[in-house]
Amino acid sequence: xxxxxxxxxxxxxxxxxxxxxxxxxxxxxxxxxxxxxxxxxxxxxxxxxxxxxxxxxxxxxxxxxxxxxxxxxxxxxxxxxxxxxxxxxxxxxxx
Length: 95
Hints:
Layout: H1 2-10, H2 19-25, H3 37-64, H4 68-94
């Protein structure tokens, strides 16, 4: 979140300042008391799918507006999260 907030500030805009506001604005909902690994991994993969969709949308807009800083940031996040999705999916196939 810190990198994104810094990017927002760099673009002369004000980021959200509290975790409660982040939670209010998030499509990813918190879950509690997960007791088995399959449910936990499923929730993580679902959350990553939401993040990747949003990041790709931001990447597209940033590309169209020549915002190279945001393009770079989103590209880095996408690469890391796609690898994580691949690793977690492989883990699910293994167990």
